[in-house]
Amino acid sequence: MASTTRFLLVLTMVLCIFKCVSCIEFQVGERAGWIVPPANNSKIYNEWASQKRFRVGDTICFKYKKDSVMEVNKTNYDECNSDRPNYFSNTGNTIYTLDRSGFFYFISGATGHCEKGQRMIIWVIEQEGNSAAAGSGGTSDASINSAMVSYGVVFIMVAFQFVYQQYV
């Protein structure tokens, strides 16, 4: 009975870790971060987002200075209206979890920035079973390191379980 309980506990932990491994963190704006785009490239964020495959559970990271990020509805996105955001952050390092499928609309809350192109639409699809990578260009060093750490934890847990059973 005790070995069955231990097995179920380990199995549950492994499944939880695998679910987390399939999620990816995307860096908005890559190295430049969340900034006002150059005048000749005001669609840079939507072009970036259109090249990614976002899934439920993925996170997007906004890095910025003296700015903010807001998640708004489509109307407020189209009008660059920051009066009623669904979500607001001005920490300089905002991590936003994509918690549902569908469209997400992001704008800068700083005056005039949205109008200059600091806004983005993200389309999120449902999480598929055990899909490993979330699309083209989605894998980053951070997500690879996260996966390696998770697999390492699983390996250590399984190894500990075998050693523990030999001495009990």
Explain what you see.
- With about 170 residues, the protein is an alpha/beta fold.
- It contains four helices and eight strands.
- The chain has a five-stranded mixed β-sheet with strand order 2-8-7-4-5.
- The longest helix is centred in the C-terminal third of the chain and has 27 residues, at about 140-165.
- The two termini are about 15 Å apart.
- The model is unreliable at about 130-145 (pLDDT under 50).
- It is found in: Cell membrane.
Question: Topology of this structure?
Answer:
Blueprint: H1 2-21, E1 25-27, H2 44-50, E2 54-55, E3 59-63, E4 69-72, H3 74-79, E5 87-89, E6 93-97, E7 102-107, E8 119-125, H4 141-167
Parallel strand pairs: 1-3, 2-8
Antiparallel strand pairs: 3-6, 4-5, 4-7, 7-8
Helix pairs in contact: 1-4
Short key terms for the protein model shown above:
about 170 residues, alpha/beta, Immunoglobulin-like, 2 domains, 5-stranded mixed sheet, 3-stranded mixed sheet, 4 helices, 8 strands, about 20% strand, cell membrane
Write a brief caption for the model.
By secondary structure, the protein is of the alpha/beta class. The protein has four helices and eight strands.
